[in-house]
Amino acid sequence: MAEDFSVPWAPGVRVLYGQAALATRVAELGSRITADYAGRALTVLCVLKGASLFTADLVRAIALPLRLEFLGVASYGSVEDIVDTGLTLRFLLQALVARGCRSVRTCALLDKPSRRVEAVTVDYTGFVVEDRFLVGYGLDHEERWRNLPFVGVLERSP
Ligand code: IMP
Q1: What is the rounded CA–CA span in Å between residue 32 and residue 125?
Q2: What's the gap in Å between 87 CA and the centre of ligand 1?
Q3: CB neighbour class for 16 (10 Å; exposed up to 12, middle 13-18, buried from 19)
Q4: Helices (DSSP H) in 38-100: which residue ranges?
Q5: Tens-digit pLDDT profile for residues 7-35
Q6: 123 flagged as catalytic
Q7: What kind of architecture, by CATH, is found in domain 13-154?
Q8: Domain boundaries, the chain
């Protein structure tokens, strides 16, 4: 397969969603959000760091005069990169509502429902994925691999 272990500097990472697949899906999400929020005030809140690359592409696919904000949360120890147990998203939603947000919808590029311990709704999902550790397109393993231009499965730690 042309898109398997595709970059020589990340030999243990197998491509799951390549650049074309990501661009297509992000464009679809952007169109849906554009339609849903037409005529309404929209603030996109990016959860750092993992969702940074996804958000950069997504906001350019939304044809509305939106505001863009960034927020850091410490997980493992909105716009999300990946929803795993759901604890991060649940915490964020509660914090936003407590601060007076009247309407919050969630968007995640990746959703791992098999790992969920908190029942959170993801309103806009890019891809539903199996329980694998993913890197690239903003996602890291020990702070590396965020700059891979694709989402890949970390098969072995390089
Ligand atoms: P949750 O609170 O368990 O839903 O965790 C969500 C956060 O965990 C994400 O925003 C990521 O920072 C991190 N995470 C979960 N799964 C992965 C993965 O497969 N690769 C990289 N980071 C992950």
Answers
A1: 11
A2: 10
A3: buried
A4: 52-60, 87-98
A5: 999 989 999 999 999 999 999 999 999 99
A6: no
A7: 3-Layer(aba) Sandwich (3.40)
A8: 13-154
Report how far residue 127's alpha carbon sits from residue 112's, in angstroms, rounded to the nearest whole number: 9
pLDDT tens profile 46-95: 999 999 999 999 999 999 999 999 998 865 446 878 888 999 899 999 99
* Residue reference for tokens 């898109």: 3
Q: Indicate the pLDDT class of residue 123, thresholds 50, 70 and 90.
A: very high
Q: Pick from 37, 48, 46, 101: which is nearest to 69 by CA?
A: 46
> How close is the Cα of 50 to the center of ligand 1, in Å?
8
Atom of ligand 1 nearest to the CA of 117: 3
Tell me, in angstroms, the distance from the centre of ligand 1 to residue 33's CA: 23
Options 84, 123, 131, 140, the catalytic residue: 84
Q: Is the whole-model pTM more than 0.85?
A: yes
**Alpha carbons 32 and 35: distance in angstroms, whole number:** 5
